[in-house]
Amino acid sequence: MIPCIWKRISGPALLSFLLYLLPVLLLTVAPASGVPQGGYAHPETLIQPEELKALLDRRTPNLRIIDVRHKAKYYLGHIPGALEVWRPDLENKNNRGRLATQAQMEALLGRLGVGGQDTLILYGDHYDHTRLWLVLAYYGFPLERMRLLDGGLEAWKAKGYPTQFTAPRVSRSRYKLPGPSLTPTLVATLEEVKKALNDPQKVILDVRSQKQYLGQESKEGATRHGHIPGALWLNWQENLVPAGPFKGYLKSEADLKQIYGALGATPDKDIYLYSHNGLPATLSLVSLYLAGYPLEKLHLYLGSWIEWSRSQEAVEMGPEAAHVGRQSPDKAIPMKTKEKKAQP
Predict the structure, then answer these.
(1) Which range of residues forms the domain containing residue 253?
(2) Cα separations (Å) of 273 from 6, 188, 280, 288, 315?
(3) pTM for this one?
(4) Is 246 part of any domain?
């Protein structure tokens, strides 16, 4: 088929065709394996700093780099060409803490000048870029056109790559998202989590700190301490390499499967993830997707602990109510309190 195309296209038309094809080829070649060892079921979800640097050096078109950090951090230095997005952009303007509407996300993509052929490169400090990934995925943005920078800005700077302090100028665009019909189960409600409580084929996973899970402390916005009854615990930081030259990179698929499998959170089960406000849980969800867990079985409980603690639903707290399944990296402080009844 390709030889036939060459016979029909020549001169300026051939040059135009090659220029159109080049960015597609550059972005669809086998990505770097990831660090360490990689081996992911969806390696196309990640991009390594070296890959991004090569794309920028080639002046690859149809790229939109998005820095998902606070504006103050953005102006202290960001990857050249990166555009700034922050948490309020991803929240419903009329209901803080809830998902931005489809219209809001379309307006955001338009402000960023995103076109129908653009690939988005997302990065942040810890997990805000995975929140953007999830919101866009929920509204139907093509997964193959979103890539997360492994290791984030720190990995970029560790390679000695440059940063800039000024925001680039872009022309606004109009972007229409397909809508949530393709991925409606990515976001779960309180009622759906309640139905999962006693189902052996469903796992509820708390990714907050150990002290929050045990009820020894809480964060602003929650009215009660503890965790959802029966919820397993695995801190979101367990997804990341903790030290060494690849600190902050995502762990390999083998490591991720071992960690989650030890909990009983296996790919055949529906997994409902929550944190304090739903942000760190998005990193855990993306990590599971990278490791080969079916996306239709991964669910972010959007209201997370803030909503559950304010409801009339039961909570558990204390070490005797823990369902960790593996040795905790934190030192537990013994507690004797266990709360099973709902509090007003």
Answers:
(1) 184-321
(2) 51, 9, 9, 11, 16
(3) 0.85
(4) yes
